[in-house]
Amino acid sequence: MRHRMVWVSLLVLLLAALPSAPLPAQEAKPVRIEKSRDPVKKVAPPRNLPKGSVPADPDNPPELFIAEVEYDAGEVSKGDAIKHDFPIENRGNGTLEIIRVQNSCGCTTSGFDRRIEPGETGKVSLTIETKYLMGPIQKASTVLTNDPSKPSVRLLVKGIVKEILAVRPKEVQQFGLVPLGEAREKEFTLVSKDDAPFEITRIECTDPAMRYELNHAEDRRSATLKALLPADHIDGSINAKFTVYTTHPRVPKVKLSIFGTIRDPINVYPQKLNYKGTSKAFADENPEDRSLVKPITVSLDSFAHKKDPALYEDLLITSVESSIPFIKADLNPIQEGRRYSIKVTFKPPVEVGDFEGILTLETVKKTIRRSIEEGGETTETLVETQKKSFEIPVTGKIF
After folding, report:
1. Model pTM greater than 0.70?
2. What pLDDT score was predicted for residue 10?
3. What is the CATH class of 266-398?
């Protein structure tokens, strides 16, 4: 026991004599340096500018100045254009750019100086067409610029559009759907609203087939133009635009228009057939194959019944003939008197090579008047019979 205590004491003295070990080095913490805040206020990114445009310099910005933002044109004759220039000054130190002008109405067109240098004056030009306007009007346009203090300016043009030479019932009229071979007419009456006498000296029309009659009132304060659509006018669209020249001191000319469509009451569709390329073997063995069958539809639009409910029309197809020996056509009524289908197929044997020919349709259209007699009996009276031929070209190739 005594020996153990001696060894412990010696061990303690030995450890005390040893040099103390250094402490492990601590990791240095980074010193955070506060960045000074930028005293310059951030500028918002520029809006979408046209190609070649440069955003305004925030240190030398432009300065838009406009003395007038509203223009009153007063009384304007219908049809006359209102034109006005708005001066735009640049009182700043940078280039003023007009980015674009947004108009609130399709009747307004605009032009402007794109760039205005410091100390200079440009302009925004507005033009308002009054052809379809009447009474008090107000048309606004917004000018967009690169001036950071005035990015947009609203311009206003107002006035009162008055009829000086009024057109009755209106400047634009419709014939609507007209059966081929039928004549139509429309009247335009021009009236002097300021009581100034006038005469129509000349009339021009974009449709050379149109005809017209002109009558002046005895006091020369009105005139009537009767536009005549002749019965022999070709089918298709009617787009007759008249320019009427007058001696009225304030209205030298007036523009009138008539639109419509001329269509044959007998519709044939399609109006031509084409067999692109067919082998002789296939055509001879499969003449009824779907790829070789060409249907034609013939139908009747009853224009007469629309005008007079007592009138009815019936359509008959009396014959269908092919000029090509190996092409045949079979007629099938879909609705008797109204609608037919013609099935066009090959009639073997076919001939090798290119072919072309005509399918001829012979038709008869009858106009019938139906009336109810006393006692409820219905009678029919034939009013008109019209015969007409239709030719449908047929082309193709057999190899």
Report:
1. no
2. 56
3. mainly beta
